[in-house]
Design brief:
Strand order of the largest sheet: 6-7-9-8
Radius of gyration: 17 Å
Structural class: alpha/beta
Number of helices: 8
Strand content: 15-25%
Largest sheet: 4 strands, mixed
Shape: globular
Order of helices and strands: HEHEEEHEHEHHEHHEE
């Protein structure tokens, strides 16, 4: 978030979405300590559509990898010790709100979104996705934004790389949107997708 905000400068805008309260507070602290007035951190996650549910918060009391926490199906495919390391079992689950990017940007009707206090977005150059397996849902909720703005999409795609290229479900969605994708340099689980016509 900080690097993107510095890159776009005071005339640009960075909307960073973090559904978990502690992680959002850490991100907001970093933004404030760097004196960045061009970042908005609404208390929502992104997905295919509006939803609300409870999720176990990340554990930040000792070393862990909070970037690896999931919003849903939190323990699926995970060993017990991994779940104990990632999630805070001493705290009550958090109420999580998920919206689509199209709703957030006002491209799809969604009552109450204006209460988030987000700025008007007239140009969208980059969508950076790191959502631990929910990449397809984020893009499903951003179809109008992708079709309208044709941004670069930089996303983690562990399913593709861990299956040695067998899981192409995300790539098929991008192909439907007339995007081509390639591996990201120096990020072994990431791909960068761009408009095939632009």
């Amino acid at each position: 978030t900080v690097a993107f905000a510095e890159r776009v400068g005071p005339g640009g805008k960075v909307l960073a979405f973090e559904a978990f309260r502690w992680l959002r507070q850490v991100a907001a602290s970093n933004v404030a300590m760097n004196g960045l007035g061009n970042v908005w951190l609404p208390p929502v996650g992104l997905g295919a559509s509006r939803s609300s549910f409870e999720a176990r918060p990340p554990q930040l009391k000792f070393f862990s990898s909070p970037g690896g926490v999931k919003l849903q199906q939190q323990q699926q495919g995970m060993k017990t010790e991994e779940a104990m390391q990632l999630y805070d079992w001493d705290m009550a689950p958090e109420r999580i709100t998920v919206l689509s990017l199209d709703e957030v940007l006002g491209l799809a009707h969604s009552p109450g979104v204006e209460l988030l206090g987000l700025p008007q977005v007239d140009s969208l150059r980059l969508i950076k996705i790191d959502v631990e397996g929910m990449e397809k849902e984020v893009i499903a909720g951003a179809r109008l934004a992708v079709q309208h703005f044709r941004p670069i999409i930089w996303t983690e795609n562990v399913a593709y790389f861990s299956s040695q290229g067998q899981d192409t479900s995300f790539l098929r969605i991008m192909d439907e949107l007339e995007y081509g994708c390639a591996g990201a340099q120096n990020a072994p689980n990431d791909i960068i997708c761009t408009d095939r016509h632009g």
